[in-house]
Each structure stands twice: as structure tokens, then as C-alpha cells.
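Data card: per-record layout.
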Amino acid sequence: MTARVTQADVARLAGVSQATVSLVLNAEYDRVGEATRRRVLDAITRTGYAANPLAQRLARGRNQIVGVFTYEPVFPSTSADFYFPFLRGIEAEAERRACDLLLFTSAPVADGRRSLTGQGRARLAVTDGCVLLGRGEDKAELARLSEDGFPFVFVGRRELPGGADLAFVGADYIRATADVVRVFLDHGHRRIGFVGAPGGREAHQDRLDGYRTAIRDAGLRPLTIDPDELTPDEIADLARDNRLTGLLLAESHRAEELRAAAGRRGLDVPRDLSLAVLGQPELPLHSDLSWTGFRIPREEMGRQALALLAELIDGRMAERHRLLPCSPQPGETVAAAR
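The structure for this 338-residue chain is written out next.
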């Protein structure tokens, strides 16, 4: 009978101590150099060593299972799905840290969205912590979860009532939107409007704040248009009647509709009316144009959300509020003002 491979065998082959092998097996990579980690992993592969995962987890007092809770169905049907990069980043970081993911799909549904109250909250207890994702969150529910001391991180900036401290990893929409405004200014635009619903989610408000700040810093007057109150044709009429030469679109799914409405009025994009999209649409734009704007670091947001959660689970001091820079997209839908 072949003798069972032990940690000592792995350590001897890798030329390290058993303590170092243990650190690698426990995914404590910040305490092991990259070259050493790879050498240990290679030795594990060559020897066929298999640690007892249950014993390891019990020894640490944790399951090494992290939950992923979504407030609406976001499981991607294609790689073009808006949520796919978030999930890909979460998965990659979980794999790097040698922990398993548990996707919660059976939480009670209230008013068309999943809930974390009652049974939904109890199910989270099988995990060490949870990454939350989606739009339909209940702020009071999140505040209660935060008070419970259960480790969780939201993908996207969120503010809670009563000053509750919610850990999140989001995108810096304020700076990204201000940078897009400056692209318009550099092209000579001075009458620039913003198309986006007022108030609402933090991501919308951040975009609006970035637009207003940059416009006022340039000595100009903001002009906001609520797309929930107007049709694309009415928005195009409003832009023409107010002699606007550029529009920033917070809701990118309206981009093609607005471009078509401008065309029906003899306005060419970008020659007569420049447009910019503030982030990728949830559904891909079917267009022959490369849209000016910015890209949201979705995969990195997912990765850092899992990394932050791991730090909170370990009880390490961590920056609980992380805003990541967006990538500018020069595109071809902003041209010199006429």
C-alpha cells in the first residue's frame, strides 16, 4: 500500500518548512512570497497531496465558505451580461484565497425582490461572510445586518440610515463623470446637459454630483433632464430648443434612442450633438459608433469586494469604503462644438 503523502513530504520537496506549507494551504498569501507560494503549490501538485479541508476549517473556526447574495436574478446568460464581470472577479479572488462560494437563490421574495430578513438572514449563517450584489436592497434591512456584526461587503457604494457603517467597493462615478465633462469642455462645448433621473440610487447621484461640480467649476450653469418624464424625441427637442451641443447620459440604454431621435430632427451625432455614455449599459449597445464615456471596473470591484470581505472575516483593520477609478473611453461621439 502506498504511504499517504504528508505536509512534511510537500515541505521537503519544496525546500520550505511545514509552517510555510500550512500558510499556503490556509491561503495566507500575504505572509508568503509569490515564488515560495508557487514552489509549494507545484510540490502539492507533484505529490498529489490532499489536505483534509474539514479539519483545516474547524481548526481556524471558520467554514472557508463565502456567500454571494443577489437582490435580483443576475446570474449571467452570456459573457456580455452586465453582472458577469462582477461575478468573475468574485470567483477569481475566492479561488486565489482557497475559499468556496455559495450562491443564495432561495431567499424569500417580497415586492419582487429577495429579502435578507427572517429565514433569508438565517441562511447566511452557514457562511463566514457574504458579498451583496444588486439594486433592490432594503436600507433598513442592511442597517440591521450591520448591527448584528455579520461580515458583509456590498458591490457598489451604499449609504445607510442612522449612520450605519456599511463596507463597500464601488466605482468613483463623481471623478469619472467630471472627467467626461472636461472632455466636452476641451472640445469647446459650453452648453452641456445631463440626462438622468434625479435622486434615487447612489450611482445616479454620484454621476449628477460629478456633472454639476465640473460644470460650475467651469463657470457654467447645469441643466438636468429627467428621462422618466420625457420621451427621447422630447429630449432631442429640448436639446435643440436650448441650443445644447452636448449631453451626458446617465442611463446608457437610452443612447441609441436619443441618437435616433436627434437624427429625425436633422441633428447628426456627433457633428451637431455630442453624446457621452456614463458607464457600460446593462445590455450591449448595438451601434456602429464607439461611444465616448467611461468603463466601470466591474471585475476589479468584484475581486476587491471578496478581498475586503476576507480581511473583515479575519478581523484585520481594513479600509471599509473603497472607490475604484473608471477607465476613460475616448470614443467617437464627442466632436468639436459648432
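Known properties of this structure: Residues 7-51 form one domain. The first helix runs from residue 7 to 14.

See the next section for split statistics.
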